[in-house]
């Protein structure tokens, strides 16, 4: 069997290693440049590879193709594979056939990284043999090749879900849905929503779907479509009929199979309404997997949070600097601005993914005193907020953006990097953007 892997990054190299171990004839092809450390791994493992090109005669003879999530369906080589009827799948779909581990699959437009790390933390503290993979950390396929975990907590993007045929998580979490990556879905929001719901499409009556019961897109889809999985909704305002999470007397509550878990909201390590929801989702998983209540409570209290997600960096001359580089869409920024309690200098911009800034208007009016645009093309942001804030400046480097923000901020203010956009115009990725932001603050 010939396995062709498109993309020589973390998921591609992990898939290649697993494929080789399982006896496939493996070839890795990347249209960009493969990083030196990955080239070394492929070479040591005797896996053929190429970069900066796709040689069609070496690709179109595949029995199965694993496409890395960053490669769009409309890439010419992918189109040709589909025309030839060659299966094009995701890393998750490829790897799952080689493990009998239980998986917890987590998706959503926002909050999935926090929820994934929090869920992993709860299960690990509970003594389970658990791995962390998907969109985060070491590739799932690589771990299946080298480790033996009983459970995997997987952060799944819509692109990874697009490439599944048979994969099903025993427990799925859908944190929320808001417009994102619309450039990959023909600017059709319903296609993106359907993509997120692929997480439950293969689930059975023995499985669970945990979801935000206050999310309009989720509610509308569930009203029109039936699912087999057991529903476990969570909400800040209502109470579930059966299983699910809710708030009562300033306590977070979660009922699973008639077992009620409860703890005061003010004891949660993470702040903000969105994080109460993330905690409810993670708690439901822990209960379903029989983690002791005391362990859940302790884990929710001592969780450290996520880098580049509302990360408090430093306070300088009474000004708090906050790194929210992971906020690559409007809905993420909504959460960030909603959690701000001081006048805010907002650093925003990058590669627009079809953003509609209207929903931010009330929050920007209320909380934002100045905007620093950080991107190659800021036209859309300027047109949206020109009449909303008094001060708007443009810049194309992080150090300059931070210096300008420092000048605009006064004691008691906050400087918030929450870009609402992808980072590829000026940075390698959102992590690079966040790290440059922190370095620029340390240099002030």
TrEMBL record:
<comment type="similarity">
    <text>Belongs to the MurCDEF family.</text>
</comment>
<protein>
    <recommendedName>
        <fullName>UDP-N-acetylmuramoylalanine--D-glutamate ligase</fullName>
        <ecNumber>6.3.2.9</ecNumber>
    </recommendedName>
</protein>
<comment type="pathway">
    <text>Cell wall biogenesis; peptidoglycan biosynthesis.</text>
</comment>
<dbReference type="InterPro" id="IPR036615">
    <property type="entry name" value="Mur_ligase_C_dom_sf"/>
</dbReference>
<dbReference type="GO" id="GO:0051301">
    <property type="term" value="P:cell division"/>
</dbReference>
<dbReference type="InterPro" id="IPR005762">
    <property type="entry name" value="MurD"/>
</dbReference>
<dbReference type="GO" id="GO:0005524">
    <property type="term" value="F:ATP binding"/>
</dbReference>
<keyword id="KW-0436">Ligase</keyword>
<dbReference type="GO" id="GO:0005737">
    <property type="term" value="C:cytoplasm"/>
</dbReference>
<keyword id="KW-0963">Cytoplasm</keyword>
<feature type="domain" description="Mur ligase central">
    <location>
        <begin position="106"/>
        <end position="286"/>
    </location>
</feature>
<keyword id="KW-0132">Cell division</keyword>
<dbReference type="InterPro" id="IPR004101">
    <property type="entry name" value="Mur_ligase_C"/>
</dbReference>
<dbReference type="GO" id="GO:0071555">
    <property type="term" value="P:cell wall organization"/>
</dbReference>
<keyword id="KW-0131">Cell cycle</keyword>
<dbReference type="GO" id="GO:0008360">
    <property type="term" value="P:regulation of cell shape"/>
</dbReference>
<dbReference type="InterPro" id="IPR013221">
    <property type="entry name" value="Mur_ligase_cen"/>
</dbReference>
<dbReference type="InterPro" id="IPR036565">
    <property type="entry name" value="Mur-like_cat_sf"/>
</dbReference>
<comment type="function">
    <text>Cell wall formation. Catalyzes the addition of glutamate to the nucleotide precursor UDP-N-acetylmuramoyl-L-alanine (UMA).</text>
</comment>
<dbReference type="Pfam" id="PF08245">
    <property type="entry name" value="Mur_ligase_M"/>
</dbReference>
<dbReference type="Pfam" id="PF02875">
    <property type="entry name" value="Mur_ligase_C"/>
</dbReference>
<dbReference type="GO" id="GO:0008764">
    <property type="term" value="F:UDP-N-acetylmuramoylalanine-D-glutamate ligase activity"/>
</dbReference>
<dbReference type="Pfam" id="PF21377">
    <property type="entry name" value="MurD_N"/>
</dbReference>
<keyword id="KW-0133">Cell shape</keyword>
<keyword id="KW-0573">Peptidoglycan synthesis</keyword>
<keyword id="KW-0067">ATP-binding</keyword>
<feature type="domain" description="Mur ligase C-terminal">
    <location>
        <begin position="308"/>
        <end position="421"/>
    </location>
</feature>
<keyword id="KW-0961">Cell wall biogenesis/degradation</keyword>
<keyword id="KW-0547">Nucleotide-binding</keyword>
<feature type="binding site">
    <location>
        <begin position="108"/>
        <end position="114"/>
    </location>
    <ligand>
        <name>ATP</name>
    </ligand>
</feature>
<dbReference type="GO" id="GO:0009252">
    <property type="term" value="P:peptidoglycan biosynthetic process"/>
</dbReference>
């Amino acid at each position: 069997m010939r396995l062709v892997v498109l993309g020589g990054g973390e998921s591609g190299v992990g898939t290649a290693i697993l494929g080789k171990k399982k006896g496939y004839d493996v070839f890795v092809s990347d249209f960009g440049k493969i990083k030196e450390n990955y080239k070394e791994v492929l070479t040591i493992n005797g896996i053929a590879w190429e970069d900066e090109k796709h040689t069609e005669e070496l690709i179109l003879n595949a029995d199965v193709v694993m496409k890395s999530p960053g490669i769009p369906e409309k890439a010419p080589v992918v189109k040709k594979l589909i025309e030839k009827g060659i299966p094009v799948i995701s890393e998750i779909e490829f790897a799952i056939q080689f493990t009998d581990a239980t998986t917890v699959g987590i998706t959503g437009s926002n909050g999935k990284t926090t929820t994934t790390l929090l869920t992993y933390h709860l299960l690990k503290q509970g003594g389970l043999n658990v791995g962390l993979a998907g969109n985060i950390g070491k590739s799932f396929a690589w771990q299946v090749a080298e480790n033996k975990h009983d459970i995997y907590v997987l952060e799944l993007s819509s692109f990874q879900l697009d490439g599944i045929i048979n994969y099903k998580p025993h427990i799925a979490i859908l944190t929320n849905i808001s417009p994102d990556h619309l450039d990959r879905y023909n600017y059709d929001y319903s296609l993106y929503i359907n993509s997120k719901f692929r997480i439950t499409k293969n689930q059975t009556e023995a499985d669970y779907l945990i979801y935000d019961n206050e999310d309009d897109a989720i509610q509308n889809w569930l009203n029109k479509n039936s699912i087999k999985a057991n529903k476990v909704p969570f909400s800040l305002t209502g109470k579930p009929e059966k299983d699910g999470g809710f708030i009562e007397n300033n306590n977070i509550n979660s009922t699973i199979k008639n077992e009620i878990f409860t703890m005061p909201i003010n004891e949660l390590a993470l702040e903000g309404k969105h994080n109460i929801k993330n905690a409810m989702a993670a708690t439901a998983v822990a209960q379903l997997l029989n983690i002791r209540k005391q362990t859940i409570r302790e884990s929710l209290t001592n969780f450290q949070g996520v880098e580049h997600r509302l990360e408090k960096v430093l306070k300088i001359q009474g000004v708090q600097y906050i790194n929210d580089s992971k906020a690559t869409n409007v809905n993420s920024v909504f959460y960030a601005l909603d959690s701000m309690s001081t006048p805010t200098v907002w650093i925003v911009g990058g590669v627009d993914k079809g953003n509609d800034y209207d929903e931010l208007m009330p929050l920007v009016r209320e909380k934002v005193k100045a905007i620093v645009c950080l991107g190659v093309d800021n036209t859309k942001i300027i047109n949206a907020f020109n009449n909303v804030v008094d001060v708007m400046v443009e810049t194309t480097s992080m150090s300059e953006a931070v210096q300008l923000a420092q000048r605009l901020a006064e004691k008691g203010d906050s400087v918030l990097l929450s870009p609402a956009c992808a980072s590829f115009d000026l940075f390698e990725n959102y992590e690079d953007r966040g790290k440059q932001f922190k370095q620029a603050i340390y240099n002030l």
